[in-house]
Amino acid sequence: MPRVHPYLVLTTVALLWAGNAIAGKMAAGHISPMLLTLVRWFFATLLVAPFALPHVRADWPVIRPRLVYLSILGAVGFASFNAIFYLAANYTTAINITIEQSAMPLVVFLANFVLFRMRVAWLQLVGFALTLVGVAVTTANGDLSTLLSLDLNRGDALMMLAVLFYGGYTVALRFKPQIHWLSTIFVLSSASLAVSFVYAVIEFALGLTQLPDFQGVAAALYTVIFPSLIAQSLYIRGVEMIGPNRANLFINLVPVFGALLAVMIVGEELHLFHVVALVCVLGGITLAERGARSRRA
């Protein structure tokens, strides 16, 4: 992949992932979530295979002893995260989904601190805390008393579970073997395809499968090309360039793009508490990134 600025790489990732939330919302009621996940990773794996297989063959001596580990990464970060993500879209708004994704940096920070004692600057702590406030306000729909009573919307609760999955995946990427990025995408996508098939079979057995109509097909096509292939590849590259803690902060741009797209495309209403949450999120990413710079200096 040509050398580009990591900020541009990760901002593009945020935009494409914001579009994924919109696609998931538009898919709700038009294609069942597990079938959507299966379609996404089937075609993503199929499309990347011709470009990736030569690199996979060259990297196979490195991949083979780490195949189980890479497969778990694909199962958790690709298949399970997206299955829960699309299921959540059936019960909550696209704006909520994108803002709640901003909790991922906090998960990454806590995991890195607990497992690896990774040091952080005090500005990073303030930034993480401010981000958490924004996520809490969104999850509670502006009424923090719902958090104290644990009276959460089902979709918001599912989205927070998805955040835990992807945060764990991001931390685990630090142990990824040094192989070509296309090899990584293909192996992880293949594992995701296998797990997605199992999820789709369970959905079918429960009688919950819904075949796609035109809108469902359009949403599925977007998920195949943009968040699956392009964004995942760029995200892996971004983590390699500036590390998981700093790279994950750019996910905080997802709610900004997501809110704009949700209002323009889906016609959702932007409430005052959404604006407050967005201010917290943007303030959090700014402070945390300044803290990371000062610590390196």
TrEMBL record:
- Name used for this protein in its record: DMT family transporter
Please verify whether the record's keywords include GTP-binding: no
Compartments, as annotated in UniProt: Membrane
Keyword Cytoplasm tagged: no
* Similarity section: Belongs to the EamA transporter family.
Q: Where is the EamA domain?
A: 7-139, 154-287
* Residues that span the membrane, as ranges: 39-56, 68-88, 94-115, 120-137, 157-175, 182-202, 214-235, 247-266, 272-288
Please report the organism this UniProt entry assigns to the protein.
Jiella pelagia
InterPro entries registered for this protein in UniProt? AA-Vitamin_Transporters (IPR050638), EamA_dom (IPR000620), EmrE-like (IPR037185)
Pfam families reported in the protein's UniProt record = EamA
Just give the chief location class. membrane
How does the record say this protein sits in the membrane? Multi-pass membrane protein
**What keywords would UniProt list here?**
Membrane, Transmembrane, Transmembrane helix
